[in-house]
User: What shape does this take?
Amino acid sequence: MTKENSIKRGRKITQTVVFGLFKICALINGIALLIIVWFLVANGWRAINWTFLTQAPTDSMTKGGILPCIIGTLAISLGAMVVALPVGVASAVYLNEYARQGKMVRFIRLGINNLAGVPSVIFGLFGLAFFVVWLDFGVSILSGALTLAAMTLPVIIGASEEALRNVPDTYREASLGLGATKWQTIYRVVLPAGLPGILTGAILGISRAAGETAPIMFTAAVFYSPSLPTSLFDEIMALPYHIYVLATAGTEIEATRHLQYGTALVLISLVLGLNLVAIIYRTHLRRRR
Amino acid sequence: MFNTATYKDIFRKGKSRRSREQIIRFLFFAIALASIITLALIVVFLFMEGLPIFSKVSVKAFLFGHYWYPTDDPPEFGIFALIIASIAVTGVSSIMSIPLGVLTALFLAETASARLREIVKPIVELIASLPSVVIGFFGMVVVAPFLQEVFDIPVGLNLFNASLMLAFMSIPTICSISEDAIFSVPVELKEASLALGATHWETIWRVVIPASISGISTGVILGMSRAIGETMVVLMVAGGAAMVPSSIFDPVRPMPASIAAEMAEAPFRGDHYYALFATGIVLFFFTLIFNMVADYISNRYRQVGAATL
Assistant: This one.
């Protein structure tokens, strides 16, 4: 009896210890994120003021602001969405509404999964060889946006598919039952119902595109550009690339430290802010369902 | 007469409606091929710009050559040290990221209270969304001096630092895919185990983990794939020395770092340029293999229902 009891206690203790370990692991993640964010905020907030956000860099990038970088980042990430969103949503519509399970769908999914796994620097090489050189777009907003569009396509497809899957079949049946064709059903019923989920995906896509450095290094971003971009074929400065350049290749790495912190803070505020919006919005949508 | 006309009208209209539907269906199908086409274009252009180097060096000398001196005269194009560096940072980072990612997934799917779940899940997603350049920056200015002091080493930018940052970046991938797999284990399996007197932990260890092992492996492989392809972190914190490392505190130069750092200076369509694209081909194949294996495992060993265990 006592032996059984002690075995039972031993099992209970093991469980408590292991579950404690789970919690500690989860905690480590939270702490790591907190440390990074706290560190950037603590060091970066002093650098951020109105001048920093609205001026171009001056004195060979050791003073002044980051306005061209903010504009550049917005231009390529929104540009990427303009291309990736329609293509991504249409792909999701095909996979979720039209396609029958089979070899073809399996093949397309394999393509999407593998595209999602291609390293960012390979997208950079591809963008350089295809958009910049072969299509002769040069180092430009257009090349950068198209490269980022290729990279965010799987993200958009994934989010749109989830959104379409969550539209109840009764909606489709009701529409088809009234004599609407498949396309009318998709266009008038399924897409409007799935729109919020698709928008969440678009927000996540923008934030992903805004934070990437390697794909735009050879395709869109430059070290320093004296003027703001005026056309799709202009090269740009971008927030992530600006951080990289100032932190590694600048002539005065130590002297521009505060600018680096400031730029990093602006970038993560943008990216984490967008993500937080998407997460909260999605939680809200899931609750309503 | 009148009736026939209407009938014909309706018939014709129905026919045009049907053919329009066919066209729309085909259009969607064509657009859905965009991902495949992009992937194919990536392969074509990598090869187009990378293969010319093999007229200068043999494939064997390229892959197993120990010296990477692309700008010397005569240049040496051997990427063996870069391949080893990539494998090393991925290996060391997965030692940290696999346990952390999987245990966090178990916490989320099995033991966390609803409240904690609602907090931890977004945290993991936010980690996934952190721009890699910011993590690289953090590694440079905070972790590097810290490591230098704690371990009393000459350089803080090294294999270990890079692995640490990469581990942090691949945890969300491992965690979220594993969590999905663990979460979808049929509840009957768990109930059966609990009913036999097993504790919750014993149920997790003997039933839940075996039932979800394919999903967990998929997550782990995709996490490693993310680590091997990650660029900015290894570019900024790995140290950049193109040598085979002998300790985990040696500076290294993984493949993505080499490509990103040198592409800007490499003369257009010179040997160096071709060699960097060829390095890209090698890197691409590494991640392709990782992804194919992940895809195979998740399809082949999928837990379909309670009865298959």
Notes: The longest helix of chain B spans residues 80-111.
